[in-house]
Specification:
- This protein is of the alpha/beta class.
- Helices cover about 65% and strands about 5% of the residues.
- Helix 18 runs antiparallel to helix 19, helix 21 runs antiparallel to helix 22 and helix 24 packs antiparallel against helix 25.
- It starts with a helix and ends with a helix.
């Protein structure tokens, strides 16, 4: 045991004598430099991913060879390379003098190693620190299309959609939808400007070039604020491999910006939607047409084209779940209004949704559409289950958050506002102003008029739509019984857009509650005449039109519209349409019966209406001043219902106030 330290010392002295230590030092420095250079040039030169691993293995083998050779041989300053004598045979005077150049190389190598180690750790710590400080949010900008054929640009858009869609599946990452980035297709701005406007930390830029079947795809991830590259890669691939490459690319991007992907998310990202490239191309083109319709809801021709393209995709792949979901979206937008009171309401869409889910139970869009259907048919619990499943699969779908917010609208203001605000954080393009209008309306319902006005102004700043703005603030004035000013704003709005007929409905109601029955009737008749140019009069306002006719002495017309309102409201209840869950049809029916002095039927419906657990600010104003209830206004039961409505509103207002305070939003 006592000889072991001596042996270790002797071995160390032998390593030094044979210059092995110096060789190790020089080799390590050179290897370190080589590996750093390889890691730098791999991505820009498009070298294979295994290049760095190959270099490591190669250098390790070389290290073993260098150590063995340095043990056996030495470099003599006079005689060149000579075999090193064993220690017991070597004499001091026979020992070659150390080469000055080797000493210098050893010292320099040592300093190089220290410098590179310091640089590596400091640099990496700085990069890690910066990335860890950045919020995990990203936007995929439209790719530069470099091919000559303009009719093939949809292929580049398909890559854009795929990368966005795959990234959206990652719960720890906030991703802007394509509708938010389309504004930058032609409007080129700096990374910093785009990052600020979209409120994201990272941007993905790139280009798409296709020559025959070969694709050159360039992808770059930059930090929006500084414009620094985080990741750069060029792919030279055959187009048949494009679907697989997209999923691998997304996983690489997530790794570079330090976003964790769960095994479930990885499985979803790697799932191939179809094995047929022709079907895939038709589906991409269908999606482009759906986007065109979304950007312009009057573009019905885009829906027709999308329908044809999705059907063609299914001819090539009859089990293509996403194509079935696309067709369901088309039918939903085409048939919604025409089938609203049909017993077969949206049956075609539901069949397609179920077909999509039969082929892919993890298709987020299909679950979202199923949730919409359940909401519209009065099945809120089922709707919420489908929405929640959609968010499990795509936690970045702002439309689903809007659906959940609307599901709770007029019922749970806090949940409505939470989901609307979440939707706003996921949308920075077309549609954001509409979200702000809905947020403003939700705050009005909860009795926060100033906050409502703030979001109406935010919407106006975004879209410059003075008509919607004036309508929004007139709603706040109606809630506070400032009918004169509400009328002035609505008249201004209607002067700007005479095709916006709902303004006449609002204007007529304000005249009605102000007591100016003549102007109310004039306004309603204008609405009726203009509306009939398009379709039959319908909706939840016919009893107001009827009352205006009645107080102006037109009893026959009044009875006609009262009966139409009864028919409409009863149909909503019988068919379990969404408004029935808010108990509003019962209120409208009660008002008609009260006006016709059928008190028992009026109270029968008011009692059902009073089962509603939460009430809105506008309902407090409405029930206190609704002229339809003048015949029973002073009766104890009606007064108690009024007090109940006000108490429910006050409780909800306080609950929202506490939520706002807890989140520093007041």
């Amino acid at each position: 045991m006592s000889n072991n330290p001596d042996k270790i010392v002797q071995f160390w002295q032998e390593l030094k004598r044979r210059k092995v230590v110096r060789v190790i030092t020089v080799y390590a420095a050179a290897a370190f430099v080589i590996l750093e250079l390889v890691s730098i040039i791999v991505e820009p030169l498009g070298l294979p991913e295994w290049t760095l691993q190959f270099a490591i293995v190669f250098l390790c083998i070389g290290f073993i060879i260098a150590v063995i050779l340095s043990w056996i041989y030495d470099v003599h300053p006079e005689g060149g390379i000579v075999k090193t004598e064993p220690a017991h045979r070597a004499k001091a005077e026979d020992q070659p003098a150390s080469s000055n150049s080797l000493k210098i190389a050893s010292y320099i190598s040592f300093l190089v190693i220290v410098a590179f180690v310091v640089f590596y750790f400091v640099g990496n710590n700085k990069k890690s620190f910066d990335i860890s400080k950045l919020e995990k949010s990203i936007a995929v900008l439209p790719l530069d299309y470099l091919s000559e054929d303009p009719n093939k640009e949809y292929l580049a858009n398909g890559v854009l959609d795929a990368i966005t869609g795959h990234l959206s599946m990652i719960e720890g990452l906030r991703v802007m939808p394509r509708t938010s980035v389309e504004q930058y297709r032609e409007n080129k701005k700096s990374a910093k400007e785009i990052g600020e406007e979209l409120d994201v930390s990272y941007l993905i830029e790139g280009s798409f070039l296709m020559i025959e079947d070969q694709v050159k795809l360039t992808i770059k991830v930059v930090v929006a604020k500084e414009g620094d590259n985080v990741f750069f890669k060029e792919y030279d691939i055959n187009y048949k491999d494009i679907i697989a490459v997209q999923s691998k690319l997304v996983q690489t991007i997530a790794k570079e910006i330090e976003v964790a992907i769960t095994p479930q998310e990885k499985q979803l990202i790697e799932k191939l939607p179809t094995s047929d490239l022709t079907a895939y191309e038709y589906w991409i083109r269908g999606n482009d047409e759906i986007l065109n319709f979304w950007l312009d809801k009057n573009n019905i021709e885009a829906l027709d084209r999308a329908e044809s393209l999705y059907f063609t995709a299914l001819k090539y792949d009859s089990a293509y779940a996403q194509a079935y979901a696309g067709l369901a979206s088309v039918y939903w937008n085409k048939q919604y209004e025409n089938e609203y009171f049909s017993e077969n309401f949206l049956d075609s869409a539901v069949i397609l949704i179920d077909k999509a889910l039969s082929y892919d139970k993890d298709l987020a869009l299909a679950h979202k559409l199923k949730g919409d259907y359940f909401y519209e048919t009065g099945q809120p619990e089922n709707a919420l289950n489908e929405y929640e499943r959609a968010l499990e699969l795509n936690p970045n779908d702002w439309v689903v958050y809007m659906g959940i917010g609307t599901l709770y609208f007029q019922d749970d203001f806090t949940l409505t506002l939470m989901n609307y605000h979440k939707a706003a954080s996921l949308n920075r393009g077309k549609g954001l102003s509409q979200i702000y209008h809905l947020i403003a309306r939700a705050y009005r319902n909860a009795g926060f008029i100033e906050k409502s006005g703030y979001y109406e102004e935010q919407a106006l700043t975004l879209d410059g739509d003075s008509v919607q703005y004036l309508r929004g603030i007139s709603g706040a004035m109606y809630n506070t019984r400032n009918y004169e000013e509400a009328i002035e704003n609505l008249k201004k709005a209607y002067g700007m857009d005479t095709s916006f007929l709902d303004l006449l409905i609002d204007l007529g109601a304000d005249y009605l509650f102000l007591g100016n029955y003549k102007e109310a009737l004039v306004t309603y008749e204008k609405y009726i005449n203009d509306k009939k140019k398009y379709r039959e009069i319908e909706g939840n306002n016919m009893h107001r039109i009827a009352y205006a006719y009645s107080v102006n002495g037109y009893k026959e017309e009044a009875n006609y519209y009262f009966d139409k309102q009864l028919e409409y409201s009863k149909a909503e209840i019988e068919l379990s349409r969404s408004k029935a869950n808010l108990y509003l049809p019962y209120y409208d029916i009660a008002g008609i019966f009260a006006f016709r002095e059928k008190k028992e039927k009026a109270y029968e419906n008011l009692r059902i209406f009073n089962k509603k657990e939460r009430q809105t600010f506008w309902m407090v104003n409405l029930i206190k001043n609704d002229p339809l209830f003048n015949s029973i206004r002073d009766e104890p039961e009606f007064q108690q219902i009024v007090r109940d409505v006000e108490a429910k509103y006050q409780a909800e207002h306080e609950r929202v106030r506490q939520w706002l305070e807890e989140n520093d939003m007041l």
